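TICKET: design request
STATUS: open
ATTACHED STRUCTURE:
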């Protein structure tokens, strides 16, 4: 089995997600993992496709025409499946705070300083329902090495967030 990571960027179009999935299917590639999101007026998609060598090569050969037809930018890279390691504990961290420039950087810097890899990161800005205050919601999936004390990491994270006036929770990942 061969694998290819695919990143897509382009204008939001009514059937574009279906068109991307159809293109992969027509090349006989399986969508192993994917994320589709609208950011501003742009569609952003990240996919991991799997298939035979011929299927992946067919996908690669058809990308230029697909890009032109749909006004997209597509980048690809051959890859392998991620091999999970049993020496890491998956945790989720949630932060809600008034939105300020640099808040996402401060959160990622905290985990970087602790040598804790970030697996996934999602942010969402919104206005608070009653006050209209600009808010940000940040969700991270992190991998805590077994050799670190989870309670110490969680306490340091909560104290860090308290100092910044962020509301935060860290808990074991359930799925």
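STATUS: resolved
RESOLUTION: sequence designed for all positions
ATTACHED SEQUENCE:
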């Amino acid at each position: 089995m061969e694998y290819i990571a695919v990143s897509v960027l382009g204008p939001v179009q009514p059937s574009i997600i279906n068109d991307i999935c159809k293109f992969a299917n027509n090349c006989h590639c399986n969508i192993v993992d994917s994320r589709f999101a609208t950011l501003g007026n742009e569609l952003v998609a990240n996919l991991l496709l799997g298939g035979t060598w011929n299927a992946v090569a067919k996908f690669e050969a058809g990308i230029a025409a697909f890009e032109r037809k749909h006004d997209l930018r597509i980048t690809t890279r051959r890859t392998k499946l991620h091999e999970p390691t049993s020496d890491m504990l998956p945790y989720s961290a949630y932060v809600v705070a008034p939105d300020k420039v640099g808040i996402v950087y401060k959160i990622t810097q905290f985990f970087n300083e602790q040598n804790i890899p970030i697996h996934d990161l999602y942010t969402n800005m919104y206005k608070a329902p009653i006050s209209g205050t600009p808010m940000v919601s940040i969700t991270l999936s992190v991998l805590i090495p077994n050799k670190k004390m989870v309670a110490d990491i969680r306490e340091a994270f909560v104290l860090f967030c308290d100092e910044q006036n962020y509301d935060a929770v860290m808990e074991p990942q359930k799925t």
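CLOSING REMARK: Strands lie at 2-11, 30-39, 42-51, 73-79, 88-98, 118-127, 134-145, 167-172. DSSP finds four helices and eight strands in the chain.
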